[in-house]
Amino acid sequence: MSSPRASASAAPTSYRSDLVLFMAVTFVVSWASWGAAMAIGGPAMEGPAFAPYLFGAFGPLVGALVIRVRRKRRGEPVPAKAVRFRRSALMWSPLLLVVASATVVVGVLLAHAAGGPGVSLEEMENVIKDNPAGPAAFFLNLFLAGPLSEEAGWRGTAQPRMRATMGRYRTAVLTGVIWAVWHLPLFFVEGTVQNELGFDSASGMLFFASSIPMAMLATAAYEYAGVVASMTVHFAVNASMNLLSVMEPEAQALIMGLQALVAVALLASIRPSKQQPAPVPSAGPDPRLDPAIRL
Prior knowledge:
mainly alpha, 0% strand, globular, disordered C terminus
């Protein structure tokens, strides 16, 4: 039987291995798919390029599933920092949805007060109507290509393993940097928001940087109520940004600042009691932990 010290030190090593595998699967699946979309050509939201474009968004989910299968086969317990699904998530999610949307709306309104374009209900309606498959498909796509396809990976899989050796803030910032790099190929896929912004423009650079405060906000949501909450925040921001057609650097910068402030406040308000207890060192897996609905 291994000693408690040996067992405790083995966990971070295992998590590092998980993280390397997760990142490799995520980037290979996503970048290969988006590369195929670029090779096919044409708008990413319609035509033959749509399938590889959409599948690329699921790279983090594929990576999460690979790690989950690996953990099951090895009989490893769920990471101590993973947040299981709780009914409280159903109460937190609507509030977090409003807060996340408010960071975008308030940022746009502040930019308008400083001389930028205002909020137009007609423009919002046109954004939905311009979707070739209709309003339902517009919101479904926003949910699939982002919240559903990414959060189980970035927050549900990578975050708990990074939290084994890092604090909340460092984890959030590092995840945001990796998340930004992961988005890079989308700047070269025709028809994407990133391509419309342009990589070498101020708006493109701000989109790249915005992954960090967005990751901080999603990190706080995850630590409050798990993947359901982080998916809610992700969807709220994406939907608000799309509906309001946020493209101006001034509005982007204000939204980033608001998201960072809200995220820091939320992360600071999390009490240690909300965290999962550290795992008990053991020579083998704890069967009580494995059935938990976590990634």
